[in-house]
Amino acid sequence: MMMGGKPLRPAERPPRILVVDDDRRVLELLDLALSAHGFQVLTALDGEEALRQALDERPDLVVLDVRLPRKGGLDVCEALRRDPEDGAVPIILVSASAETETRIQGFARGADDYLGKPFSPKELIARVKRLLARSAEARESRRRAVQLERELNRAQDELRRAHHETRREQRMRELAFELGRELHGSLDIDQVAARFLLAAQARIGSGMVALLAPDGITGSLAPLAVRGDGFDRVSGIAVARSGEMMSLLSGLARPVLRRDLERFPELAAEIPALVAAGVALVAPLRGRRGLEGLLLADERVDGAEFEPGQLELTGGLCEIAAGAIHNARLACEQMERALGLCGGPAKGRRAPTLRAEAAAIADRAVRASGLPPRQRGLLAHA
């Protein structure tokens, strides 16, 4: 619509009034009166047409005669109040009946005002303006209520996220303290692996968990320990350090579902071994010096999906285990080196120096082993 040669913005659109009466002369009179005060007027001659226009055009107010053909005014009023999209449109009922019972029925059906015929167009326009003002205030209140509800929902979501983050940090601290102390309390790599798999199985809920570690010969990752099943189930799995899977897992540095790995065409040659073993989850043990191993797990015993919180805790557990396994491997290598120096032939002038060096290395390794005093003494003597 144009006004003064400029298009009106939606917010500046004149109020739209639907006038419903079976008398065309009344419609023409009210059309002229309302239009003269800047209102946009829609008209209908019966109840069915009134309902159709009300639902299609969405007027800002309805002036509705009680006695109408096809569908009475009271029925139209009640139907508009049941409209789920705009059941609060202001309605002025107009009737030639002055009976109190008719007024009561009109208000009971949802009318906002009642005007008896004959009436002055000036009085109708005054009531229209009053109801439109009240309707605008109600719409603004509803808009503010909706806005406040959205803000409240956002605040509650932020609070839930903050609570979840706090709980996550608390679980990670507990995990780091309890499992870190347990895993780092031993330098026996087999014992570390057993404790790690026990903790992993308890948190994942899988029937089988296995740890792959470098085999020391080919450099590939092969089964080191299994819990919940025999070695034969995972004996066919060997992950090459130079392979695509190791590169991908090292880069991700987080637990990955096998079905997600299957989406990568470059892993087509390495996936079948995981499928044959029933592996559902693969988690890298990534430490400061790279990948120390892989955790494999089958489906959860209860048949449920792995939850995000479980995967996050598993990732933290693998990070702690990577450090413990690295320390255990270093201690083992140091011990082997010390024993080799002690047992090997040492001739010439440097023999005493080499033996002293070997004894010092052996002493440090024994002290770091965490063994009881008697066993440390026996190992040092050897």
The name of the CATH topology of the largest domain is Beta-Lactamase
- Portion of residues within helices: 40-55%
Total count of helical runs of at least 4 residues: 12
How would you spell out the order of helices and strands? EEEHEHEHEHEHHEEHEHHEEHHH
Task: List the strand order in the largest sheet.
Answer: 4-3-5-6-7
Q: Choose one word for the global shape.
A: rod-shaped
CATH class of the largest domain: Alpha Beta
Average pLDDT metric: 81
Strand content: 15-25%
CATH superfamily of the largest domain: GAF domain
Number of domains: 2
CATH architecture of the largest domain: 2-Layer Sandwich
Task: Give the low-confidence spans.
Answer: 1-10, 368-378
**What class do helices, strands and sheet pairing give?**
alpha/beta
Characterize the main sheet. Answer: 5 strands, parallel
CA distance, first residue to last residue: 102 Å
Radius of gyration: 41 Å
| Number of separate strands | 12
